[in-house]
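Translate sequence into structure tokens.
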Amino acid sequence: MAVLEHVLEITNLSKYYDGKSPILKDLSLTINKGEVVVILGPSGCGKSTLLRCINGLEEFQSGDIKLNKESIIANKKVLHKIRQKVGMVFQSYDLFPHMTVMDNILLGPMKAQGREKKEVIKQAEQLLERVGLLEKRDAYPRQLSGGQKQRVAIVRSLCMNPEIMLFDEVTAALDPEMVREVLDVMLELAKQGTTMAIVTHEMKFASAVADRIIFIDEGVIIEEGTPEEFFSSPKTERAQRFLNIFNF
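Result follows.
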């Protein structure tokens, strides 16, 4: 039996706002190499905050997060290097409007990682071709649709060669007809063995892409299991009520 390789280990993570209001409560979670974990839960339950803690964008009060056994807490001085290993795609595309698609993608690998321009361009072209946007390499963000911008944002993160990719409601700001093109890219990444943690309200997509479903409510993991287990026979009444909203 193969030994699972942990990419991410979260232990007893707690996060409070204003020093009082808990948003994450003693949460523990492990994600293995090549695993796709989808995080579900009602609005305000702590899903996005969890991703931001993993990426070092939010401080937390207690617990630990390890990326490939390297603690984020114990290595605050090199946090920027650890964050380079964690790709994150947000609801908003965060592309620089005055830069072309290619320049947006090149910026991180060249400035933060000090890589050669020729090498990064080659990788960027390959990734853009994979997501069907190579012909847009010299376009500016204003010339792209929302779905195209989000695909560029995914390529930009992938070009940093991260150990894990985090997706935070990446289709929430898209028109319905553009959602499919972004989800298809993420499904393809899953097939290729990319390690991912995904926050989404797209239930059918979650069922199709996930190796494991994590259901969070009020900062606590209420339930976890395979998509088959979670969607066909949720164990908790809270998960049942949540799925009923989506008629799932």
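Note: The longest helix spans residues 176-191.
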